[in-house]
Structure formats: C-alpha cells, structure tokens
Amino acid sequence: MSKTYPPLDQLINSTGLKLTAIADRLGVDTSTLYKWRVYPNTIGIDEMESLAKITGVSFLDIYKITKKFKQEVAKKSTVNQ
What DSSP assignment string belongs to the chain? Predict the structure, then answer.
C-alpha cells in the first residue's frame, strides 16, 4: 500500500514530469513535495496555484483532491471515535 495519496499521485504522474523537476520548479525540496503527496491537506493555496502552473493541471483539480483528502480524514476520525 502506498503512503502517498493515489488521486494526487495520478494527477501529478499524468503530467509526465519527474517529481524532482516539479520540486525544482516549485523551489521546494523533494521531501516537501513528498509530504504534500502523503498529506495533500498541507498544500497551501499559493502552492496549489504554483503546482497547477508548473504541471499544466487544473488548479480546481488539485483543490478538489485536497478537499477530498480532508473529507476522508475527517470521516475516519469520526468513525474511530
């Protein structure tokens, strides 16, 4: 099982860009990009905009993925209580 969030990985992988190239263009370390891929809810709006611009994917697609992740986390936390 992957530690990263598959919907975000699929979106990023669909660009054909290497993760190192994306991180370099974003001006972040690859570990930061990895953290975002594990916890998409940690990506800020500015970072989402930059990621969209650099990769050519829709900002709205990135936003929807982060929102879905937040909802899944919230749902799991209420089920586990």
Answer: --SS-HHHHHHHHTT---HHHHHHHHTS-HHHHHHHHH-GGG--HHHHHHHHHHH---HHHHHHHHHHHHHHHHHHHHHT-
